Amino acid sequence: MNNRELQEINTYKLKLRPVNESDLELLRKWRNSPKIRKNMLSQSIISTAEQKKWFQKISTQQKNQQAFHFVVEYKDKPIGYANFNYENRQTGLYIGEEKYRGTILAFCLALALLDFVFLQLCETELDAIVLSRNLAAIRFNEKLGYQIVSDKLDIITMHLTKERYLQAKQELEKIIRI
């Protein structure tokens, strides 16, 4: 099996599975919710047509192994979304289900995704782009080992190495206890 092949990930009590067409409306609903949308680089409302166009794009990316896009499940129910893009070496994630936001599940999701990127795909470094007003995301990323490398206008660029991630992971696993 090619180590870049899209697969299901089961770890930290979560399942990350490839996005499929039946997920589109739920993902669009989450992405358009004000609490999620306000922290995205693009804050426009996404139409059904735009979501279908996005799905066509990510389907091609996944087929060509340029990116990985996952629906995140907890107790067999979708609760969020995560991705990794090879072109810009960036990950993204959010918890869509309100009752799970602000819980340890966000760290479980980040650890599952970063383990996949660093340990299965063998990447050595990543970047994150965060709105400077999104202090919670900045603190969250710092707990994962990211460091701020650029602060321009309203955008902060953060950088993570595999070594810093593995150190941060040891501390986070003590808290998560999974």
Which key terms come to mind for this protein?
single chain; 178 residues; alpha+beta; Aminopeptidase; five-stranded antiparallel beta sheet; three-stranded antiparallel beta sheet; globular
Descriptive report:
The chain has 178 residues and is α+β, with helices and mostly antiparallel strands. The protein has a single domain (9-176), classed as Aminopeptidase (3-Layer(aba) Sandwich), CATH 3.40.630.30. 39% of the residues lie in helices and 29% in strands. The protein is built from six helices and eight strands. It has helices spanning 24-32, 34-37, 48-63, 105-120, 135-143, 162-176; strands at 9-11, 14-18, 67-74, 77-85, 90-95, 125-131, 147-152, 155-161. The strands form two sheets. Strands 1-2-3-4-5 form a five-stranded antiparallel β-sheet, with helices on both faces. A hairpin with a 2-residue loop joins strand 1 (9-11) and strand 2. Helix 4 (105-120) packs antiparallel against helix 6 (162-176). The radius of gyration is 15 Å and the shape is globular. The two termini are 28 Å apart.
Topology (SSEs and partners):
Blueprint: E1 9-11, E2 14-18, H1 24-32, H2 34-37, H3 48-63, E3 67-74, E4 77-85, E5 90-95, H4 105-120, E6 125-131, H5 135-143, E7 147-152, E8 155-161, H6 162-176
Antiparallel strand pairs: 1-2, 2-3, 3-4, 4-5, 6-8, 7-8
